[in-house]
Amino acid sequence: MPLPMYDKFFIIIIIVVVITFTATIAGTTITVVGQQQNQTVNLTALFTQVTNNDTTTTTTETLANNTATNMTTTTANATNVTATDNMTIEDARKLYLSVWNQTEFNATFSTFVEPFSAAGYGVYEERSNVFAPGETIVLYVEPVGFAHRQIIDEEGGNNNTLYFMNMTADYEIAAANGTELQLIEDVQAGSITSHRPNIEMPLTLTITPEVQPLPIGDYIITYSVTDEVSGESFELEKEITVAERE
User: Fold this and answer.
1) Which entry of 55, 109, 216, 240 is 20 to 30 Å from 178 by CA?
2) Count of domains forming the chain
């Protein structure tokens, strides 16, 4: 029995859809395969560039050079460590003194301390810069770069070499506006004769304003310290306040 006209039209539509779908799948497959081939070609080219003879040779030479440099550096460091390990205390002291003798005379540290509390290098009781009227003012100072004068000890016929160190100080007390109020000169700050060229020689610079106590107010004290052996000097400027105790 012949099919009605609309049935034939429906069948034709189904056939067209099937053909179109099949072609789309085929095209997609071809595109995907083509992309995979392109990716494969690109990866092959990438690996070919990395592993070509010129690159491999250059890389090998670079690694060899770096290895040789590292070995040289390691050997040099080992030599330095060995030299340091073989250095004696006396060698280290001589090296330190050679640097010391080229160091400018100056102070690396200073602070106000309680009277009679300074008992050695780094041994003191620190205090503030506020003082009561008539109170003793003590500045603890750690100088460096001072000279050592060699002298011969002829006592007992030993002719031993001794080392003389000598420092003096001047104190200038001024008002907060800079007006000079008092000048104390040529105060013995520290003097010793030793069997060794000492490098730890703290100074205690003391001002005792008992005769004429400083009135209440703010002041500036300039400490001028002179190394009498070398003739060099340095200055320290300190601000203080004189106030009644609470």
Assistant:
1) 109
2) 2
142 with 196, same domain: the answer is yes
- Strand arrangement, sheet containing 203-207: 106-113, 137-144, 203-207
> For all residues of the chain together, what is the average pLDDT?
76
Single-letter amino acid code for the residue at 40: T
Distance CA 68, CA 73 (A): 9
pLDDT, tens digit, 9 for 90 and up, residues 20-36: 544 444 444 333 334 43
Q: How far apart are CA 200 and CA 2, in angstroms?
A: 127
Cα angle: 198, vertex 200, 202; to 5 degrees: 125
Strand-strand pairing, 217-227 and 106-113? unpaired
Burial 169-189 (b: 16+ CB within 10 A, else e): bbbbbbeeeeeeeeeeeeeeb
**Residue 86 covered by a domain:** no
**pLDDT, tens digit, for every residue of 42-87?**
433 333 343 344 433 333 344 344 444 444 333 334 334 444 678 8
Q: Same structural domain for residues 66 and 115?
A: no
**Amino acid occupying residue 66:** N
Question: Does the residue 117 lie in any domain?
Answer: yes
